[in-house]
Write a structure and sequence with these properties.
The chain is built from 8 helices and 11 strands. It has helices at 46-62, 69-84, 136-141, 146-150, 156-170, 210-217, 224-234, 236-249; strands spanning 2-8, 18-23, 26-33, 97-106, 109-115, 119-124, 130-133, 193-198, 202-208, 265-271, 288-292. The strands form 2 sheets. Strands 7-6-9-10-1-11 form a 6-stranded mixed β-sheet. Strands 2-3-4-5-8 form a 5-stranded antiparallel β-sheet, covered by helices on one side. The longest helix has 17 residues, at 46-62. The radius of gyration is 19 Å and the shape is globular.
Length: 293
């Protein structure tokens, strides 16, 4: 397959807490879940966590031994937890965490894993796109966000409501009846959404952090078929450009109430080689990729 990646931080002077990367038969995307406005018990920070976990996942996937994706995610979580459990209180709800989305091909099968609210869009040839995302974060958050959404971004009232919103979410992180993210407990991997599709039915796939998927699921400026067409014509970076334009047009969140006026935005677009270019016996491998910034 060919993989084209695009990513931009929310602001140029802030670290990008998203991560995406690829190995010959798999792509991963993570969106760091930081608790802005609160005191973290981790010395390293959210960007460190997503890069470490993303790198661990790529290492596990590169050494592919036929394991299922939850097992791979669980082992990667343990690897990163071991890297900072002696210096940080990694079990505290304020410690860094991340969404995880994985797309992997294996002969004639494509497997996926989705944990928390990043988005995977499967491009079915000749059919409507299939959108896969774990909605439990939004289901919990919707119960607590009214005051935050009512206050304009950048105001004292919004900042206070945001802190209260985050504190409310803490009690539900990685708890039954709440939502699940990658943090310190490998057991959360069993809570991820997983599935498989025949490679022959897919034209490609797109992995998006929620900062990139805003154009559809928050701003409603396009639908998924339109986004897939835009990516195919102008590349993933154009989706991010349009997200930034929308955010800039509404910095206080009056039209589109949201926790963050700007958010890190990342896409990874996976496509099949045309038949004349594809290696014999392979629909999606090997991988080539470029990064757009």
């Amino acid at each position: 397959m060919q993989v084209v990646m695009a990513t931009r931080p929310a602001k140029p002077d802030q670290p990008n807490e998203d991560f995406t990367g690829a190995v010959p038969n798999a792509v991963v995307l993570l969106d760091g879940a930081g608790l802005a406005g609160t005191t973290s018990t981790c010395l390293h920070g959210v960007a460190w966590y997503t890069r470490r976990l993303g790198g661990a996942l790529l290492g596990q996937l590169a050494a592919d031994e036929g394991r299922d994706l939850p097992a791979i995610l669980g082992q990667a979580i343990v690897q990163v937890a071991d890297a900072h459990r002696d210096t940080c209180d990694i079990s505290d709800p304020s410690s860094p965490s991340a969404t995880v989305t994985i797309f992997r091909t294996d002969d004639d099968r494509a497997d996926y894993l989705a944990l928390a609210d990043s988005v995977l869009v499967l491009d079915h040839a000749g059919d409507v796109p299939e959108v896969i995302t774990d909605g439990r974060v939004d289901a919990v958050g919707s119960r607590y966000r009214a005051a935050m959404d009512a206050a304009p971004n950048g105001t004292v009232e919004h900042d206070r409501a945001l802190r209260e919103y985050i504190e409310a979410l803490r009690a539900h992180r990685n708890q039954p009846g709440g939502f699940w993210v990658a943090a310190d407990d490998p057991g959360v991997a069993a809570e991820a959404l997983t599935g498989s599709r025949p490679v022959s039915e897919l034209r490609g796939a797109v992995l998006l952090s929620d900062g990139a998927s805003r154009t559809v699921d928050q701003f409603a400026l396009a639908d998924w078929p339109e986004v897939l067409a835009l990516i195919a014509e102008e590349g993933p970076i154009e989706v991010i450009r349009r997200v930034r334009a929308a955010e800039t047009s509404d910095p206080q969140g009056r039209r589109w109430p949201r926790a963050k006026a700007y958010d890190d935005a990342t896409l990874a677009w996976c496509t099949r080689f045309p038949a004349r270019q594809a290696p014999a016996g392979s629909g999606f491998t090997p991988v080539t990729y470029r990064i757009e910034r």
